[in-house]
Amino acid sequence: MDTISPDFARMFGQSVYIDTNVFIYFLDRSPTFLPVVAPFLRAVMDGRIIGYTGVAVIAETMVKPYKIGDVAIIGKFKDFFYQKDFLTILPHDPAIFDLASQISAKNSMKLIDSLHLATAVQGGCNYLITHDGGFKPMGGVEIVLLRNLVADS
């Protein structure tokens, strides 16, 4: 049986930047990751975790619905992101792009991942949750991998 891990519990009351893959696994109902991401996003919706994301995350998540051209899914995904009292959606201004470039250059990270990390840093987030292993902690932002959110009991 799986239980909530200490990594999950310590995010309660904290600001957490949510990477694209968390939303994709939830919205696509991934059988592997839904048992992890659904309780996490429920905690965000309930206000136990203060959720942040960036405009680029929404753009990345919207690629598949636009590619298949399903107007209903496009609307559903947009409604999900912009529902009241759910997420703070952070912009990516020139200073964030500059910081992202520096992070990418110094840490050999993909620019899009560096953009997410820079946005989390500038947004004052305590954590960044992702499934991507290439992130490096920076500026007070701790990286939490999805696989660490469930503890075997």
From TrEMBL:
Residues 16-136 form the PIN domain. Gene3D superfamilies: 5'-nuclease (3.40.50.1010). InterPro entries: PIN-like_dom_sf, PIN_dom. This is PilT protein domain protein.
